[in-house]
Design a protein that fits this description.
Blueprint (H helix, E strand, L loop, with lengths): L5 H5 L2 E8 L5 E8 L10 E6 L7 E2 L7 E6 L6 E5 L8 E6 L4 E4 L7 E6 L5 E7 L4 H9 L13 E7 L4 E3 L8 E7 L6 E6 L12 E6 L4 E7 L5 E8 L2 E9 L8 E7 L5 E3 L7 E6 L6 E6 L2 E8 L2 E8 L3 E6 L6 E5 L7 E5 L6 E2 L15 E7 L5 E7 L11 E7 L21 H5 L4 E6 L8 H5 L8 H15 L3 E11 L1 H12 L5 E5 L5 H7 L3 H8 L11 H4 L13 E6 L8 H12 L4 E6 L9 H19 L2
Parallel strand pairs: 31-32, 31-33, 33-34, 34-35, 35-36
Antiparallel strand pairs: 1-2, 2-3, 3-4, 5-6, 6-7, 7-8, 9-10, 10-11, 11-12, 13-14, 14-15, 15-16, 17-18, 18-19, 19-20, 21-22, 22-23, 23-24, 25-26, 26-27, 27-28, 29-30, 30-32
Length: 635
């Protein structure tokens, strides 16, 4: 047995995007480091014949960022993106497993965003931005580069690579719309194409449209608008012809539970196929027949088949399951999943389960004694059923309490804690890092999150910090009553929306001895004005600054409005380049706390965005987090 160190947490590697070949034998996945050293992430592709010797071999050199492995229809070629030639500019490559040869297929100067090998083995569909023109180069060289909104906006366009000639062509379709996703019909027919008016994350997701594109003729057909944040396209045949499905937010609000929408292509009739379910679809996976659907189901995950009468559950998996791929017949699937005390790995098996683990990417964790993790189920003050997780200090049982308790709130808020190993470098999911230092950690799933259906998720629209806050307090009180939490040694932490909840908490009560606010929202009006999700964030807070003369509803749910009440010491962490929750949110909170003389520490991480990625910064976050709670919660 060895202790858990910060280096062990951040220096591991994790599997991503498994890709199962249509023949069901060959499987490839990306192995990526948790932390980054330098400006780029060095990943590698690993390949095995899972029905043969099952021996994994690394097929790329681990000196570039490799991503998005996809197989050809005949399973003879593996296509993937790599920036080996020019870091930060990915190009399409092809690996032939039979001889191990890798060749580069594109030299598109703007880089390739995504790709889809087609049923015609000589064609690959590409998504790529326009290449810079000579005028663009001159403007950049001369610094004559004023940015005018609406002019020269970067847009991903559909392109076709002809493997016989190596030529990339750009069909004249979809106008100046940003192409988001492609999916070819299983019989080799047209491509379903999802587009938006813009790549802007505030505006684009609200302007989606579906199209059909025939790569043989170059013609396109508009199928009409789709719901907000549409994604995860899938085709399937039915008695009335072909259907096209996708995931999107349930109307009419801009914060809601996701649903599976079913468009009958011939009649244009569209239906919500998951209405009223107490689960939330997270992935739609195409087969030759009925698609598979992954559902966030409370603390666990359900895999189902979308039959004509509705989703038919096939198997239930403890914790989290994602990155599902399948053979065309849907008889074998691969996915990323783990368990309470084992990290995420690649698993394979029938969709009815069980899935067997076929990788072991973090053997260094085998000797670590983790804190016991157990599910919690309780009712909110208004009777709503809630769940969450409790992680006890490593080597301790509940009878050894009461313990210092840190409540760690997840982000989103449309996210959830699943019953999996809680060992990550970001604040809202580092429960085991604190548990191995002697803390009990409460991981609540308050309303507004994922896993309990649409109405549960929509319960915070215009009401952030209201009922979701009392949901969290109810759970804390339960743990105090059970003798697990010491009421005099309570801390609270969170990142993003969880950071908002931590900042909100200390403005509402003095019960907490310490708080950690990582990339947290402190002023909702400023977030709607400057954050990249704009009006989607405005839907959460109930108003936007342009809604006339204030005070506005969002002022009443902004933590900065309550800064004068704060007596709890606060640690503020924020990435300098965060565009999701801009740095100004942390600066504003820091200035308010300084103005009122509140104890706090403010740390900015250069070059970091909404998540902390650099190795030394991740180490600093881990050490600083423990030191902060040790300072205020230890006897």
């Amino acid at each position: 047995m060895t202790g858990l160190t910060a280096e062990v947490v951040v220096e591991g590697r994790v599997p991503q995007t498994p890709a199962l070949a249509p023949n069901g034998h060959l499987l490839c996945y990306v192995l990526a480091p948790i932390s980054r050293v330098g400006d780029h992430l060095d990943t590698a592709l690993w390949l095995a014949d899972i029905d043969g010797d099952g021996v994994w071999s690394r097929v790329t050199a681990d000196t570039a960022t490799e991503s998005r492995p996809r197989w050809s229809a005949d399973s003879r070629s593996l296509y993937f993106l790599s920036d080996l030639a020019e870091r930060g500019t990915p190009q399409l490559h092809r690996l032939t497993p039979a001889d191990g040869v890798v060749i580069d297929l594109t030299g598109w100067r703007a880089g390739i965003v995504d790709h889809l090998p087609l049923a015609d083995l000589e064609l690959v569909a590409l998504l790529a931005y326009d290449e810079p023109t000579e005028q663009d180069a001159r403007r950049a060289r001369d610094r004559d580069d004023a940015i005018v909104f609406g002019e020269r906006e970067p847009l991903a366009r559909l392109r076709l690579l002809d493997l016989r000639t190596g030529q990339v062509t750009t069909p004249s379709v979809f106008g100046d719309r940003h192409v988001v996703e492609l999916r070819q019909r299983p019989d080799g027919g047209p491509l379903a194409v999802l587009t938006q008016d813009s790549a802007d994350k505030d505006y684009g997701p609200r302007t989606g449209r579906l199209h059909l594109f025939d790569p043989a003729t170059g013609t396109a057909e508009d199928l009409g608008p789709v719901e907000v944040e549409a994604q995860s396209l899938a085709w399937w045949p039915a008695e009335d012809g072909w259907h096209l499905g996708y995931l999107a937010l349930t109307p009419p609000d801009l914060h809601a539970g996701t649903a599976v929408f079913d468009l009958a292509v011939s009649s244009r009739v569209r239906r919500n196929r998951t209405a009223g379910l107490p689960m939330c679809p997270t992935e739609l996976c195409q087969t030759d027949a009925a698609p598979l659907v992954v559902f966030a189901d409370g603390l666990n995950t359900t895999l189902a088949r979308l039959d004509p009468g509705g989703p038919t559950p096939l198997s239930r998996h403890t914790g989290h399951l994602d990155a599902l791929t399948t053979t065309p017949a849907g008889k074998t699937v691969t996915a990323l999943t783990g368990s309470r005390h084992q990290p995420t790995d690649v698993h394979v098996g029938p969709p009815t389960g069980p899935l067997r683990k076929i990788t072991d990417t973090r053997p260094e964790l085998d000797t670590i004694t983790f804190g016991t993790q157990r599910p919690l189920a309780y009712r909110a003050a208004d009777g709503l059923e809630l769940d969450g997780l409790l992680v006890l200090p490593a080597g301790k049982s509940a009878s050894d309490g009461p313990f210092p308790l840190v409540t760690s709130v997840h982000g989103g808020p449309y996210d959830r804690y699943a019953d999996r190993l809680q060992l990550f470098s970001f604040p809202s999911a580092r429960a085991q890092w604190l548990a191995t230092a002697g803390y009990a950690v409460f991981l609540p799933n308050p309303r507004g999150g994922q896993g309990h259906g649409h109405e549960f998720a929509a319960g915070v629209v215009g009401r952030v910090g209201r009922e979701e806050w009392t949901d969290i307090l109810t759970g804390i009180d339960l743990l105090i009553a059970e003798g697990i939490a010491d009421p005099d040694r309570l801390g609270i932490a969170g990142g993003s929306h969880g950071g908002f909840m931590a900042a909100w908490a200390v403005g509402q009560t003095d019960r907490f001895r310490a708080a950690l606010v990582d990339a947290g929202i402190t002023d909702w009006g400023m977030l709607a004005a400057t954050g990249e999700y704009g009006q989607l964030d405005g839907a959460l807070s109930g108003s936007i600054g342009w809604d006339g003369i204030g005070p506005h509803p969002h002022d009443a749910v902004s933590p900065v409005s309550f800064a004068g009440r704060i007596r709890t010491p606060v640690l503020i962490l924020h990435g300098a380049e965060d565009t999701n929750v801009p740095l100004g949110q942390a600066v504003y909170f820091h200035r308010a706390l300084r103005h009122f003389g509140a104890e706090h520490e403010f740390v900015i991480y250069p070059r970091e965005g909404h998540s902390i990625r650099e190795r030394n910064h991740q180490l600093d976050v881990l050490h600083r987090t423990r030191a902060w709670f040790d300072r205020w919660l230890r006897p």
